[in-house]
Design goal:
The radius of gyration is 24 Å and the shape is globular. It is built from 3 helices and 15 strands. With 318 residues, the chain is of the alpha+beta class. Helix 1 runs antiparallel to helix 2 and helix 2 runs antiparallel to helix 3. The strands form 3 sheets. Strands 5, 6, 7, 8, 9 and 11 form a 6-stranded antiparallel sheet that branches. A 5-stranded mixed sheet has the order 10-15-14-13-12, with no helix packed on it.
Amino acid sequence: MKRLLSFVILLACTVCGYSQKHNEFRFWEDSLIALRDQVVNEPDETTRLELNEDFMSLLESVLQMPKSFEHTWDSVRNFSVLSSPDNVFKIFTWYVMKQDYSVENFGFIQVYNEGRHKYVLFPLYDKRGVLDYPKTQIGNHNRWYGAVYYKLITTKEKNFTYYTLLGWNGNTLFSNQKVIEVLHFNKEVTPIFGARIFKNYPEKVSRVIFEYSKNATLHLNYEEQEYLVSTGKYNPKTRQMDYRKVNSPMIIFDELIPMDDNVQNLSAFLVPESSLNQGFIEEDGRWVFMKSVRGSNPDKVKPDYQHKPRQIYNPNNH
């Protein structure tokens, strides 16, 4: 703590002259990035966690400054900052690697409280290791299933707003996780994590957790997709059901399959199969599960067609 106080005093003295020519919060942002770099690069776990406490304390001090919510944080590279489109809150998340290669997540939520006419902070500490039922748990910020978020999606169910977060969790030496989390706020503007807004999913969940092999990469994105929907009509010519193409924003992800039939229940041996996609489509504020999606992003540029002359087999050439 003494080290942090000295650090903050030094920065406070420096920023007086710096802010005359530059944005004051840009200075603090650069300072936080530098401090995060120290956390990431520190080889000793004890020192790494101490530096992380310094980072968290400094970020808390910065977020309590007047007009801090207006800062865009557009230069951040080693921690995540997401802003809700309605300007209700910002969420800051990051992780610390432990000596055993497990990951501990941390964060803050900065949200406007109309009753108090001010922005308030809620610290986030990773509690996933003590949650008895992590997939169904619904609780406030003190029951946070930690992750570093990279995408925020806003949906409305009647007059109620949900914020769906896509996140990554380094988890353990053997497995990574991707998480579809749901955040909302109660009447006291306290953050609540988890909500039963997932329809037709094989499990009853309040958040969706994908756990898979450390050596694999699971694609979990929110993007415009073109997919097929059955019309319910039978085509006598093709002797198949007719389908029509639909464009819609979708949470789309790879289906996880076991490396071997003998290890089906071991997450460390689950890998994504990129040719098998599943997804969620928003419907009246809820996420409807689609078991099989043959999606293609219509926004992605397709390569130009190149004519190739027909190749005729000639045995004399072999």
